[in-house]
Amino acid sequence: MLTNTVYNLMNQIVEESKSIFRIEQCYKKDCLEDKELKSFWDGLRIYKEEQIAQLLEHLKEELSAKDPAKKVPVGQ
Length: 76
Known about the structure:
Number of domains: 1
Structural class: mainly alpha
Largest sheet: none
Radius of gyration: 16 Å
Strand content: under 5%
Helix content: over 70%
Oligomer: single chain
């Protein structure tokens, strides 16, 4: 059974991933030729990718803490 912490981390990874999808598939296309706005969306996407990387590291730590003998290959 997953702990609340593991569930929360997994859920947030999914939410951030969905947000990146929306940025790429909708928001950037909707701003047409506005280079400044496209730059904003690109920056936000990069920020969210960094957040996902941090969340994955925390998830890896949480899963490894449950059974330290196992190395959990999360995101690799």
